[in-house]
Design brief:
This protein is elongated. The longest helix has 21 residues. The chain is of the alpha/beta class. Strand 1, helix 1 and strand 2 form a beta-alpha-beta unit. It folds into two domains: about 240 residues, 3-Layer(bba) Sandwich (FAD/NAD(P)-binding domain), CATH 3.50.50; about 120 residues, Polyamine Oxidase, Chain A, domain 2. Helices cover about 25% and strands about 25% of the residues. It contains nine helices and 20 strands.
């Protein structure tokens, strides 16, 4: 019996890779350091419980007309999709002490699409089609050693025990910067490859997302789309986050840099964000039924110290491949490794499908 393929990371890329391996009747073991699947996809209810029918604190949008791999996956899984709400006027906040400017909104083409139930519905649908015995949560990979016939990997399991397993290949579905910082490779990477992985920005890592839930979308009643931009903050970009099921919400990207967010604390940022929504949308915004906040820079399974400052977006096709001695055993499959759409949900799908296809091709052509 052939050893399994080791998939590291249970976000969208890791789940797509596992799904494709399972379809090809290739055994796999998926290790996820978190105690949940989804990675940077995090869909929560107003009470902050994880949910497949709630609000996205990670990525939410995709564009099927220009991201065919993502569109095909959503259709294949039979998931409903709907347009991001954009009907109504936009608000701009530029000068402190002055009311926000109200301008006619513009329809986005192609429209941003969202998944009914939130992006977490992708995670749930993919996980449902995989054998549970092949998925290990709370399993943190520590090292991978190349051998003549495959790889040997060490990891710490959910109970704190040190475990080892042998695999034919290792497919890394996690940010290359995080990989370089947390996993010891033997033989080690050459200096140029290690630098490329460390210098590749991690999608979502520098950012924080705030969400306020309401009993109804009162801004729509006032002819507003829920879209706003601000140079005053703490939120720099705001959108309607209401669900397909009708739960009303606004969300915003926090413009305060990660070091300052850590200094101020979540409570102070949330309070300031609610005050800002009142400035923009009026008194009703001051009484959310719940708020949600996620600082990805403070998530040790997403970000490293190098992610504290917002950097450039990952460049499609810009990541150095594995060095020659690893090239037939180590596969990069996270969104940052995508040849197109790097740093998006679509990039995670494209990178995972490409890596699995290359792995299968190597197996077929091997003597």
């Amino acid at each position: 019996m052939n050893p399994p393929v080791l998939v590291v990371g249970g976000g969208l890329a890791g789940l797509v890779a596992a799904h494709r391996l399972h379809q090809a009747d290739i055994d796999f073991v998926l290790l996820e350091a978190r105690t949940r699947l989804g990675g940077r996809i995090l869909t929560a209810e107003a009470g902050e419980a994880l949910s497949s029918e709630g609000f996205d604190l990670g990525p939410s949008w995709f564009w099927p007309d220009i991201q065919p791999a993502m569109g095909a996956l959503v259709r294949r899984l039979g998931l409903p999709a709907f347009e991001q709400h954009s009907d109504g006027d936009m608000l701009f906040e530029r000068v402190r002490g002055e009311p926000p400017r109200r301008l006619q909104g513009m329809r986005q083409e192609p429209p941003s699409m969202r998944i009914g139930g939130g992006s977490g519905a992708l995670v749930a649908a993919l996980a449902a089609g995989l054998p549970a015995s092949c998925i290990r949560l709370g399993a943190r990979l520590t090292d991978v050693t190349l051998s003549g016939s495959g790889v040997a990997a060490g990891f710490v399991d959910a109970d704190g025990g040190v475990q080892r397993l042998v695999a034919s290949d290792v497919l890394f579905a996690l940010p290359p910067r995080l990989l370089a910082a947390t996993v010891e490779l033997s033989p080690p990477l050459d200096a140029a490859t290690a630098r490329s992985w460390r210098d590749t920005p991690t999608w979502m890592a520098p950012h924080a997302k705030f969400l306020a839930c309401y009993e109804r979308p009162f801004w729509r009643e006032a002819g507003l789309s829920g879209t706003a931009q601000s140079s005053l903050g703490p939120l720099v970009e705001i959108h309607d986050a209401s669900t397909a099921a009708g739960q009303a919400a606004l969300f915003g990207f926090v413009g305060v840099p990660a070091p300052q967010r850590a200094q101020y604390g979540e409570a102070a940022i949330v309070e300031a964000a609610v005050r800002q929504l009142v400035r923009l949308f009026g008194p009703e915004a001051g009484a959310p039924r719940a708020t949600l906040f996620k600082d990805w820079a403070a998530d040790p399974f997403t970000a490293t110290a190098d992610d504290a400052q917002a950097g450039e977006h990952p460049v499609s096709g810009g990541l150095a491949a594995a060095p020659a001695e690893w090239r037939q055993r180590l596969w990069l499959a996270g969104s940052e490794a995508a040849r197109r759409d790097a740093g998006y949900l679509a990039g995670a799908v494209e990178a995972a499908e490409y890596a699995v296809a290359a792995l299968i091709e190597r197996r077929v052509s091997a003597p």
